[in-house]
Amino acid sequence: MKGIVIRSTGSAATVKTEDGKRRNIVLRDYQRDILTNFSENRFNILMASRQCGKTITSAITIIHFMIFNNGKNCLATANKLDTVIEVLDKIREIYLNLPFFLQQGIKNLNQKAIVLENKSKIKGFATTKTSSIGHTGDLLYMDEFAYIPNTIADKFYKSIFPTISSIENSRIIITSTPNGLNLFHKLLTDAERPEGDPEKNNYKPMRVYWWQVARRFCTYVRLNKSA
Fold first, then answer.
1. How far apart are CA 227 and CA 225, in angstroms?
2. DSSP state of 192
3. Averaged pLDDT of the chain
4. Which one from 93, 117, 144, 195 is the annotated catalytic residue?
5. Taking the model in full, what pTM does it have?
6. 3-class SS at 23?
7. Confidence class of residue 227 from pLDDT cuts 50, 70 and 90?
8. CA torsion, points 109, 110, 115, 117, in degrees to nearest 10?
9. Would you call 144 a catalytic residue per the annotation?
10. CA–CA distance, 162 with 181 (Å, rounded to integer)
11. Which among 84, 140, 148, 161 has the fewest CB atoms less than 10 Å away?
């Protein structure tokens, strides 16, 4: 996959902001790091706080992959269908507002799928024990993976990982907010093990904390002197 070109001030993508206006996405420092990791590494896992833009950066990565590669099959899955639809909504919104010279023609566009003229496509589905059956892809995006029940996550992951990883130059991106000890936690901590550790996996790990988001309110703990 060709590397994503990241400008110092932002990207060519736009989104609708809270004031209802459409503006260029201004990347935060950690978002540039996320895009770099997603571009340069085959397997990525990201733990991030809420409202830090992890879905936006993932959407940018997927759009770039689809535009600059012909005939690629992308899959997006999450703990529930509403989350998947939200992911595809962001992908659709960003894509339709790209400069015209970056866009491909669109062959199909609906809530659960986008197919471009270059035959690259993305399909969304909710994660279940059997949802991996019949699905193969060049890029798999799993959002809010920590919120998938362990009984489902384990079976889904064990069935789809060998299928995706066996495809040459395929990519896997896993993102989630933290949610206790589960498969997501294991994959993340195993990825963070030192080189040479036999339990280290091939994922490129990254963590983004709430305090890395500019203007995020701080909570202070103070001693009660009257106690």
1. 5
2. T
3. 87
4. 144
5. 0.86
6. strand
7. low
8. -10
9. yes
10. 23
11. 161
